[in-house]
Write a sequence for this structure.
């Protein structure tokens, strides 16, 4: 039986998953010209703020790979700030597969998941820690 031939034009795809607060981002980076889409929309149109887009693309600036990869993101959960942080971690993890960037990403702190979560409200309190006003008399 003849073996199936591998396609020559199959693009190389690198995957990374990022999480932040309640947000999850599944990231694919493909060698390309620097296109950045989130949930089928242009990144700036999705996030609505340039600083969130810049924060998401920070791993490319640290590794000097800006404009060398196309980024396709599927993000869900949380808000736009949490999703932006999740995308940043996802891109950093995908870059680990793409090349030898571990030292630069680790030094910049992009490989550490931000573990801060919203603290739950406790009964008898107004918020997580705020207590009702105390009156001695």
């Amino acid at each position: 039986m003849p073996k199936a031939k591998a396609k020559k034009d199959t693009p190389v795809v690198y995957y990374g998953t990022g999480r932040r607060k309640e947000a999850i981002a599944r990231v694919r980076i493909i060698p390309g010209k620097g296109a950045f889409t989130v949930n089928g929309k242009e990144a700036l149109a999705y996030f609505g703020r340039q600083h969130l887009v810049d924060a998401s693309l920070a791993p490319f600036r640290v590794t000097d790979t800006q404009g060398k990869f196309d980024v396709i993101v599927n993000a869900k959960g949380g808000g736009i700030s949490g999703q932006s942080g999740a995308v940043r971690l996802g891109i950093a993890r995908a870059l680990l597969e793409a090349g030898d960037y571990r030292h630069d990403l680790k030094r910049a702190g992009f490989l550490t998941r931000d573990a801060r979560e919203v603290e739950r409200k406790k009964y008898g309190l107004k918020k997580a820690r705020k207590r009702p006003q105390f009156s001695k008399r």
Notes: The CA atoms of residues 87 and 114 lie 12 Å apart. The chain has five helices and five strands. The helical segments are 43-47, 50-56, 58-62, 80-98, 102-108. The first strand starts at residue 14 and ends at 20.
